[in-house]
Amino acid sequence: MSPRGESPLYPKQVLTPGRDDGRLSRAAGSADLVLDTWRRRPWPRRLLKALAIVLLLAGATLIAYPFATNIYANYRQGSLAREFRSESTERRYVTRTVRTGQALTRLRIPELGVDTIVVEGTTLSALRAGAGHYEATALPCEGGNAAIAGHRTTYSKPFARLDQLRTGDRIEIETPLGECTYRVTGAPFVVEPDDWRVIAATGGATLTLTTCHPPGSAAQRLVVRAGLIGEPLR
Q1: Closest CA to 180 of 138, 146, 224, 231
Q2: What is the pLDDT along the chain (234 residues), one digit of tens a residue?
Q3: How many CA atoms lie within 13 A of 190 on its CB side?
Q4: DSSP letters for 84-125
Q5: Is the Cβ–Cβ distance between 192 and 220 less than 8 Å?
Q6: I need a surface site. Which of 65, 96, 141, 154 has the fewest CB within 10 A?
Q7: H or E stretch including 233?
Q8: Which of 232, 227, 223 is nearest to 206 (CA)?
Q9: What φ, ψ does residue 141 adopt, rounded to 5°?
């Protein structure tokens, strides 16, 4: 045994002031200075309140945005449905003078409960209707590759469940000149956003549907291909 009962392996530790204690003292003093500044000056508290309000408003906007776009798209769909039934739409369709944003065709997907008016064009303003026809592609129900883009999470999100389509599912199209039906020819697949081969011309009468992937992101595109049943309208 060592003197006074101390263990030779674990001698009593004696703490002596050093440089670490000085650093702790300076850190404590700095913290006290900051707290004192916050207590005596009102602008830090105001800044913090303003930041909290901004964050709250930003969060509310993110939550409300999809609902607001759905309300707008549903309102626009009502006016587009009336426009689609008009004689002027048929005349524009026959003469190939449908302008961007005007009603072009009606798309139904029974398996997904989709029933929406498709406008001409895929600009940001045109797609606020929910779905738009790629202008450079064939018209639906006719020969060639007719391509349609649609929203998946906003603006009534007509293509929200496009990934659930399976081979053999029906896609119905109504145009001012008549109706036709396509059948899905394969499982949905994903491509890069700049892969325009999916909307290129094809030898037969096909329909290509595209939407963002994954939901809420434009990182990739989800694609569904369908083939026309029967002969093209024109």
Answers
A1: 231
A2: 444 444 444 444 444 444 555 555 555 556 666 666 656 666 666 666 677 666 665 665 556 667 788 888 889 999 999 999 999 999 999 999 999 999 999 999 999 999 999 999 999 999 999 999 999 999 999 999 999 999 999 999 999 999 999 999 999 999 999 999 999 999 999 999 999 999 999 888 999 999 999 998 999 999 999 999 999 987
A3: 9
A4: HTSHHHHHHHHHT-PPTTSEEEEEEEGGGTEEEEEEE--STT
A5: yes
A6: 96
A7: none
A8: 227
A9: 75, 5
Annotate 119-157 with DSSP letters as a single string: EE--STTGGGGSEEE-TTSPPTTSSSEEEEEE-SSSTT-
CA–CA dist 201, 126 (Å, integer): 23
Dist. CA 99–CA 120, nearest whole Å: 6
Sorted by sequence, the CB contacts under 8 Å of residue 98 that are 6+ apart come out as: 89, 92, 104, 120
Secondary structure letter of residue 209 according to DSSP: E
Domain 68-228 has CATH 2.40.260.10: yes
Residues 6+ apart with CB under 8 A from 172: 107, 108, 109, 110, 179, 180, 181, 182
Of residues 203, 199, 206, 201, the one with CA closest to residue 228 = 206
For residue 213, the 8-state DSSP code is E
For residue 177, the SS3 value is coil
Q: How far apart are CA 162 and CA 158, in angstroms?
A: 8
